Amino acid sequence: MATTTDLQFPCVLTVEVPFPTPRLASIALKALQVDKELSPLVKRTFSIEPPDGSATNGEVEGNILRTEYKATTNRMLRVAVNSFMDSLNLVLEVMQELDTDVLAPEATA
Questions:
Q1: 46: which DSSP letter?
Q2: How open is the CA angle 19-22-28, to the nearest 5 degrees?
Q3: Which of 69, 67, 86 is nearest to 19 (CA)?
Q4: pTM of the prediction?
Q5: How far is CA 9 from the centre of its chain?
Q6: What is the dihedral of CA 23, 25, 26, 32, to 10 degrees?
């Protein structure tokens, strides 16, 4: 995918997080989308992508949460991504505690 560099927001980072199911990816997207970026110096976009190598006939649901950050400086990018990682960690912990199909059952020894 060809992208052009935005002169106002030259610092870019894309974070892709795979989930076990499309349903969990969608739940994470909805939970993380609620919080808007506080700084006008940072832009963030979310999408859900299908895994690489999967059919692109429009029927395949994605299970990869893709988050793209654009910022005016590396420092602003770091601060925004650190905050995102904290929020993502919280979402994953809640999923692990409250959802039944987040992780495969652990083998008991």
A1: E
A2: 60
A3: 67
A4: 0.77
A5: 19
A6: 150
